[in-house]
Amino acid sequence: MSFITRRKPISAPHHHEGEHRLKATLSWPHLTALGVGAIIGTGIYTLIGVGAGQAGPAVILSFAVAGAVCAFAALCYAEMATLMPQAGSAYTYSYAGMGELVGWIIGWSLILEYTVVCSTVAVGWSGYAQGFLVSHGWGLPAALAAGPWGDVPGLVNLPAVVITLAVTGLLLVGTRESATINFYLVIFKVIALAAFVILALPEFNAGHFQPFMPYGFNAHVDADGVKRGVMAAAAVIFFAFYGFDAISTAAEEAKNPSRDLTIGIVGSMLVCAAIYMVVAAAALGASPFEVFAKSGEPLAFILREHGHSMAAVLIAAAAVIALPTVIMAFMFGQSRVFFAMSRDGLLPKSLSAVNSRGVPAAVTILTGVCAAAMAGFLPLKFIAEVANAGTLAAFIATAIAMMVLRVQRKDLERPFKTPLWFLVGPLAVLGCVYLFTSLAAVTQVLFFVWNGVGLIVYLAYGRTRSRLAGT
């Protein structure tokens, strides 16, 4: 039973060379843009409508709760990423702090998270792309713009499939090249959100915030079978805040990990939290939540309602152009988690091969194909909640790993130390556990089923092929 407790070394092993080693090509502006690009996306462009439908105007509190939990988790990630600047993120930290079995479970959960996030954002992107095309008279047939289980059933969400595969192709070009493109697209995306706020604020009506909390605070299922309340919305909107963990997957590719990772993780969270609160307040002030809650493109919808038809087109265009940065960030993260697990022997070694451009091509293609398939057939809200379950597990594990190593390995040099770790760590764990209990029951069941399958894969394959199997 030693496989349960054997731990990954804190320092990078010497065998990570040649075709199984990633190139250090990223600096803090690239990493911050990677974080902002991952965080600001479907959450504010699309899920603000879903969240408002669950919590009403109190969705602002949902943003605050989700943001606070993510802030605690981000501080834990910053310490672990600078302590272990290796690919793999929470998988690597769990493996080192709590042993191989826990590491596998978290890695398997991350595979679920990142792949599903890519699909979620692709579906959100499709809604804006279709709206943009329709406004120009070029809309796709309904059967090709939605999957069979969406609110308006179709055959396949073709735009979502196309954008996912396009981003996959871009990532195959090279890490630094794709990061540079991401940097400029993120700037464009932030400018578009600033334009929305400027146009929406003159339409601000405080009456739209009454009643402020129509569905209460705690998550509950109403008579229509819909889970509502501030915490129910927070459990979904949580998706809008995470993304900084994708930065930690790039730890091995950072030029100066101790500086660049800290700035990237903490900086991106602070920037995005401020942007989210301002945009949410402007949206709710400009339109009653019941009006835009069902729209697949709520920000553009609000602008059209107030006669800003050209600005609505531009907002939709900004989403069409810039939302792929989120897909790019998470697909990047997914490939690095797969890469790390393969390099450790828990998955086939062929998946950790890096091409001449420094890209783990096999896992990038595998991730892209799986994400495209999910995006083509599943609805947005369902996919987002499934992604949240995997992320919450990763955040909990990272916080626990940080606390375990603080107690057991006080000798380690920590470039960044989580402030008040004995308080921040438990708050991160408790907050994530509470958000997990607020997820839909089917989401929780799917999460455990996924990890049940993962446990079988580990026992049948990874347990005996691990690099640490002989230890």
Automatic annotation (TrEMBL):
Alphabetical UniProt keywords: Membrane, Transmembrane, Transmembrane helix, Transport
Name by which UniProt lists this protein: Amino acid permease
Gene3D superfamilies in alphabetical order: Amino acid/polyamine transporter I
Lineage start: Bacteria, Pseudomonadati, Pseudomonadota, Alphaproteobacteria, Caulobacterales
Spans through the membrane: 31-52, 58-78, 154-174, 181-201, 230-251, 263-289, 309-333, 359-380, 386-407, 419-436, 442-461
Compartments in which it is found: Membrane
Keyword Disulfide bond: no
Membrane topology of this protein: Multi-pass membrane protein
